[in-house]
Structure formats: structure tokens, C-alpha cells
Amino acid sequence: MALSVPGYSPSFKRPPETLRLRRKRGRSLGAAPPPKERPEQTTRRAALAAGLPLRPFPAAAASRGGGAPAAARRNPFARLDNRPRAASEPPDGPPRSQQEAPGPRLDSNQENDLLWEEKFSERRAISEFLQIPHVSFSESDIPSSESTELPVDWSIKTRLLFTSSQPFTWADHLKAQEEAQGVIQHCRATEVTLPQSIQDPKLCTELRCAFQQSLIYWIHPAFPWLPLFPRIGADRKMAGKANPWSNDETLQHNLLSDWSVSLTSLYNLLKTKLCPYFYVCTYQFTILFRAAGLAGNDVMTALVSPTTRGIREAMKTEGIEFSLPLIKENGHEKKEASGTGLGHGEGQAVSDEDEEESFSWLEEMGVQDKIKKPDVLSIKLRQEKHEVQMDHRPESVVLVKGMNTFTLLNFLINCKSLVASSGPQAGLPPTLLSPIAFRGATMQMLKARSVNVKTQALSGYKDQFSLEITGPVMPHSLHSVTMLLKSSQSGSFSAGLYTHEPTAVFNTCLPTDKVLDREAVLEELSNCGLHPKTLDHLSQTPVLGKSSLRHVEMSDCMYNWRS
């Protein structure tokens, strides 16, 4: 591609090859006579010597008697991506209108710039909305076949941007009675079933109340001046915020005590199948607790991501049995995945046995004395290097099953390193997120707003409509909202989904011992507070792996999705 631009060098550190060859040829054949100086150059040199102000050179084309001005000489040391593009050369990427809608503007630490968010959120929502219908995907994206249901997505979304050819004005300015009715429907777990298509959504009170119901979530702790989700990488957002507990040990103890009560309450609800799932968001990792029967598992499960070697060793010390589902179970990786908390001596014996077996064939050949065996310390260092290399990556996700989740609960309550000891998050307990109420929880609402714009089309201007939802969007809310939009938008809409990346790995398909009876699962979890269709959706086995839903498009009540 670079050859189409004369004089362009792909390396910015060296001049073009053509110039280098000309210089070498000039030195070998003798220096060429200097070009004759033009009169205007002589005049300019004389003025410079006399200290007079200089006037710019006239255009080269004007000195030759007219014509178009000559193009400026290309700087051979310019950056690769700033070089001039040849007329016949296609652009490097898809047009701006065909690119995927960008997420929120990021600073140097890849964190949301709150000031930019407040000042330009309206403009950003409109510009991204105009780009959503033209999203293009790379070859590495996983396409899906058309289906009437989306795959279950256990990641937490930070933002949803829906677009449609029909307005979303029905989602704005709910009446006081409609808002109150939506809260009551949520608290009483009222099942609302809407028709497949609604003629006038703005006049449909049931739709507006159900939308209010789908936006409610529960959180602990709750401080209006602090953004308590996400917690990973949130130091920049929390910097400068008031945190009176940072230097008050008594206040920190009270906060952690209340948090322990709330966490225990959530676990008890989960164990009795009155709560389907909940999240524990710390400043280092996120944990997803799921009730038995969800995601294809017949026992309670807990996924921890991302983890470090230190966290895994601490869990082993507490006697928590866990596995690493994304690590291949062969060689020493299988020992790491077992997570049974073996003692040092027992693990040492296993390593020695493996070492002896791996070198037994050298004795059969009679060359064992000529080969230097690695000592135990070298083997241990290699294993530790492997364990550290996967830290903070999706592959470090830890799976805890059954009654070991109770041991994990005690570990979380007693683990001092669960709370940051310095920085803006110092002394602040982890955030608990749940779809239902629990002890000490605060009811919160996802923020929703609609934007209507006019875009240019072949026949003039046409109306385009979008609906933006921000906040910790949990799996049940995503499913509930898409069900409502299916009815309100006549079965046609598009959506851009923005994922909290550390939680994308929660879509990993976990090993199961048996196939669950879906009807029995729905019966046991019927009182967990979710719509029966949403509960049936969450009981499906995850298929997204380490990915999550990024773009969803519904047409004629059929889904297409990309991850």
C-alpha cells in the first residue's frame, strides 16, 4: 500500500530508499554543480543580510505564469497513518457511519470522564444512535442464526442504547400513579404479560408500569455522592469525593458489620431459592453467586473473576475447594485446577513422582547421567510463573460449587484484604447488587431517556429514535427490557450493549453432572421474584464463553446478535 505514494518510506527513522541511492550515486560520480539561483532568491538573501523584513516567496505556479499551485513536498519522516492517500487507494477502515458505536470517552486510565459525560452526553447519544444501525463486525465476531430468543448473558452491562424507527416517547415522563404502580409490581413480583404488538404505546399504562418495574434494582451500600459501580478501576471517579470513614476505624467497623449482615441475608435468600443470583463487586474482583438450577447447574455456584495467585492461595488456605474451568486439565495445570488445598509436603511428593516418571525413559536408554535434571526449585519456579501469568486475565476465573460457597461466604466476611486500605476506596465495603430486596438494601433505578433526531435520507429528512439506559444493568433487566420493546416497537429494533469487561467471563459454560429438568427448576424458583419467561431464560446453559452480547437486532420478532 505504501508503494502507491512516491517517495514514501515505510520506516520513519530512515529517509526513502530512492534518496539514499541518489546520494550514493552523486558521491561516486562526482558532485553535480549546484542549481542556478533564481533572482528572487538572490534578492531575499540580500535583504536578510541587511536586516530588512522578509516577504514570503510568491507561489511557484505564479512565477511560471499561472496554473494550479504546486503540492507541498511530503515529509518522509511523517507518521505512517498520516501519509497522503492515493486516489485509487481504498480507506483503511469502514466509513464512520458503518463502524460500531463507540463507548463513553475514556481517559488515560481507561475510565469514564465524568465531566465529559455530563457535558456531552446528549450529543454523544445522538451521534452513537445514528451509527448503531450500520454496525459492521470483524471476521472474529461470532455470528448467530436467527432465533426467537437471545442467548443468556451473565455479564453486567453499564449502558444500553436502543434504536428504532418508532418513537420511545412512551418511556418518558411517567405519571406519579404509573411510577408507584411499577414499584408495587416489582415488590410483589407481579407477572405482566403484554400483547405481541401495541398500537399506541404512549397510551398503554401497562407498558409504562412494566418498564418502570424492569428498571429497579437493589444495592448495598448506597451513598448518593459516590459511584458504587463499577468498583474495579473506579479510583479516578471517586477521587475528591467525601469519604468520612477513610480515617475513622469505628465507622469502618460499623460499615463492614452492616455489609456482613446484608451479604449473609443475600446468601440465605439464594440458598432457599428466594433470590436467583447476586453480585459482590470489590475493588479487585467481582463474584457472581447463582442459585441451584440456573445456568444449567444443579447446585449453587459462585464465579470469581479476575483472580490472582495470592487470592487463590488464600482460598486454598481457608479450605475452599475450587476449580479453574478455563484451564486445560493436563499436567500441572490439573493440579492448579483442583484447588483442594493440598499441604506443601503432599504437593511436593506429587511433583517428585511426576519428575521421576518423566525421566524414567532416559534410564532405559542409558543416558541418564548425561542429562541434567531440573531441580525441584526450578520446577516450582516454572509453575509459579505459569500461575502468575494468568493473573487478572479471564482464564483466572475461579468456580466454587455446592457447600463450598458457604465457606467462600465466611472467607469474604473475614478477609481483611477485601476492603482497600488506601486510596479513594479505603474502608469502603464491596458493592452488593441484587434483582430483589434483601436486608440493608436500597432500591435504585436505572436511568432511562429517549432522544429523537432527524437524519438526512434520499427523500429528505426522516425521524430516528433512540432509548438510552445507564447503570448496572443485570441479566434479568436486559431480558425484561427486550421483551417490552418487542411489544412496543412492533418487533423491530437495534441495540448496542456496553459490558463491564471483568464480568464477561461469567458466560463460560461450566461442567455439569446431569441434565436438569427445566420444568422442575422453574417450579422450585417460582418465588424468586422474576418473570417466568426471564427465569426460563436464565436457566439456559451459557453459550457465549468469554464473550458477551455487543449488538442485538430484532426484525419481525426474530433476533440476530453479535458478541
In spatial order, strands of the major sheet run 6-5-4-3-7-2-8
Average per-residue pLDDT, rounded, comes to: 76
Shape: globular
Q: Which structural class is indicated by helix and strand composition? A: alpha+beta
* Strands, count: 13
Outline of the structure:
With 563 residues, this protein is of the alpha+beta class. Helix content is 33%, strand content 15%.
Describe this structure in words.
The chain is of the alpha+beta class. It folds into 3 domains: 1-29 and 77-92, no CATH class; 114-215 and 446-562, no CATH class; 235-327 and 390-442, no CATH class. It contains 17 helices and 13 strands. It has a 7-stranded antiparallel sheet with strand order 6-5-4-3-7-2-8. The chain has a 6-stranded antiparallel sheet with strand order 9-10-1-11-12-13, with helices on both faces. Strand 9 (447-457) and strand 10 form a beta hairpin. The longest helix is centred in the middle third of the chain and has 23 residues, at 249-271. It is globular, with a radius of gyration of 32 Å. The model is unreliable at 59-68, 79-84, 86-123, 129-143 and 329-353 (pLDDT under 50).
